[in-house]
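Hi support team,

I'm filing this because I wasn't sure whether my run with magnesium ion finished correctly. The job status page said complete, but I'd like someone to confirm that the output block is well-formed before I use it downstream. Pasting the exact inputs I used:
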Amino acid sequence: MKVMKFGGTSVGSAERIRNVAALVQQAGRQVVVLSAMSGTTNTLVEIADYLYNRNTDGARETIKRLESKYLKVAAELFASEEVRSQAEKGIQDTFTALLGITRELFGPVQERIVLAQGELLSTRLMELYLQEQGVQVLMLPALSFMRLDAQGEPDLPYIKEHLLPLLEQPAQVYLTQGYICRNSHDEVDNLQRGGSDYTASLIGAAIGAEEIQIWTDIDGMHNNDPRVVDHTEAVRHLHFDEAAELAYFGAKILHPTCIQPAKYANIPVRLLNTMKPDAPGTLIDNKPEPGTIKAVAAKDNITAIKIKSSRMLLAHGFLRKVFEIFESYRTPIDMICTSEVGVSVTVDNTRYLTEIVRELKRYGTVTVDLDMCIVCVVGDMDWENIGFESRVLAAMKDIPVRMVGYGGSNFNISLLVRAEDKDRTLQSLSRYLFL
Ligand code: ASP
Ligand code: MG
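And here is everything the job wrote out:
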């Protein structure tokens, strides 16, 4: 069985819901995971903010506005009077309950109940629409099987135990909510913003799905930035670890935590586009493609910091002191390069840059390079393969390179260049690696 997950924009209007229903109907027996309609979770967050700030009027107005949006969708979506009034009743019940919450004392428990309503609404609309279309659909309430353990991590054994029996009931489409779950106190909770992908991955792992499909309305991954490079190609296949490398570069790829359950259960994940449903998309799995370079991606707004100190020569504990400074300002380090007398690191968060630099000066001479850019080459770069390092470096022969990172994983080489050199770096890498 497959798992198909559709994001917020894919179910963002009556027309888009119909479009998803058509895709689902063609797909055979499967579990369908839906996000909230686009914009809904943000509006629910806004409602919660009003309630935390004791602005009940603001909350009520926003609730009413959201309700009328849903009533409009229902009016447009259903052909039959009877189904429409069933949907309207569901919508009204949800929003009456939300109004009820505005009269209670508001805290995190209430907040998470508010946030859960988006996925409950989108799946209810889809359920009714599929029924109207004569599809045999069964709702699997996420709140009855999706669960966090005492550490706040998804509880896979519990999920399996409570989900598998539900799938024994016959249906063509098993429909469920992304994002929402219960915690170990049995309270309504969620898997964090964007968590519907995580739901799909957990369900795929729990049922041993043949494939997890993540449907969005964005165009798939390219092997280089199509805005900068003339000839780019779609990336058809990635190893899970290559996908994880690319996630930092804002590639249209899933967050590594979300795909972890799929990776460990060895379930392939396919990224697909609802606007081009016949395109093959990008397949992510555990199969390496020996010697293949898959993609080049870039990340802007990087700052490099170099600490040079002759005290570092043959000393131990120097790096720890340097890293501790970054840690104490909760600033993640991305690239690192060291020599015997110096270390360079990059950060993308410069909130505490002044403080960090001031403290680093206790240990050495500090240089900061602003407006840098990390360009990363991703593919099968096992160190025993030969040739790819020289191709990457040959591509950089006319471009100043501030740092090179290689050997941290088997799947990447990173180059730090000036922001102004980014485009020609991407173009040159494209020529040397892909043409
Ligand atoms: N609706 C939730 C959000 O907007 C979860 C998701 O869409 O994945 O964050
Ligand atoms: Mg989303």
